[in-house]
Amino acid sequence: YGVAMFDNKIFAVDSKAGTFATFDLAKQRYSTFSGTGGGKMKLPINITVDQDGTKYVTDTGRNQVLLYDRDNRYMGAYGEPDQFRPVDTVIVDDKLYVVDILHHEIEVLHKRTGKLLYKFGKKGGEPGEMLHPTNIAIGPNGDVFVVETSNFRVQRFTPEGKHVRFYGEVGDTSGKFARPKGIAIDREGLMHVADAAFQNVQVFDTNTGKLMLAYG
């Protein structure tokens, strides 16, 4: 499900196998990693790699975010019982934004300690509320973009969690969503959103909300 890139490597999470695969583009090698002991994965969903190579893997089987260093050594896990069901993360400076699909919110942790700094969102459909958030991305100005699969939209927040605007709505025509999941913001500020029902990616202007194109 989840994919990340770092140091000329592609990391792809295989949820069913309980692993992530590493495709080393420079060495033309492929390997898989599942962890051992306290660091063994159960149901990994997504992966985020920090600038120093630290990997943050969201595991919904353990309901934790698992940490591994550059060489895949287990560093620990964030998440107490019933704290969250994490499905995606993104890093901004020392903050780790964690998407909690169970409580329909975003928890912001200190990336080195796991301490809860603040959180935002609650179950619902109004501005600032969410319904089954699944994926997250950061825009060029630091704003936070959250995909709400069951609200059929993307919601934009300030870094502190204040609602900015919505993108998309339920529907089966261009510019609308049926099962939105993955999201990325490119260097020009364009928003790419994957839809698992349409099996395509739609690209929006984040300033105007206008659909630019779709591919797939």
List keywords for this structure.
216 residues; mainly beta; four-stranded antiparallel β-sheet; 20 strands
**N-to-C series of helices and strands:** EEEEEEEEEEEEEEEEEEEE
End-to-end span in angstroms?
Answer: 17 Å
Task: Report helical residue fraction.
Answer: under 10%
Q: How many helix segments?
A: 0
Summed over residues and divided by their number, the pLDDT gives a mean of 97
Largest sheet: 4 strands, antiparallel
Shape category? globular
User: Structural class of the secondary elements?
Assistant: mainly beta
Your description of this structure?
Helix content is 0%, strand content 51%. It has no helices and 20 strands. The strands form 5 sheets. Strands 1-2-3-4 form a 4-stranded antiparallel β-sheet, with no helix packed on it. The protein has a 4-stranded antiparallel β-sheet with strand order 5-6-7-8, with no helix packed on it. The radius of gyration is 17 Å and the shape is globular. 34% of the residues are buried. The model has no long low-confidence stretch (mean pLDDT 97).
